Amino acid sequence: MDAVHPTMATKLSYGWIRKGEDKLINTTGSRTRLNIIGGIQLGKLAETVTAQYERVNQESVVDFLIKLKAQHATA
Questions:
Q1: How many other C-beta atoms lie within 10 A of the C-beta of residue 60?
Q2: pTM of this prediction?
Q3: Which residues touch 48 (CB under 8 Å, ≥6 apart)?
Q4: Are 52 and 64 in contact (CB under 8 A)?
């Protein structure tokens, strides 16, 4: 189990733009970050469990563990 926080923002590091010119760059949206908690069982990657939360804190981790337990209730 681990949390990841990918950003959905355009981050330019280089490009083919003439020096001294401005170029309009399309962005991906207004939301800039996702908070995702996921769990995998090695050897059973098809059973991966993920959930998206507003923030990763103790409440969201407990909620995720409850979801994980429910998915593996028969184990």
A1: 17
A2: 0.63
A3: 38, 39, 40
A4: no
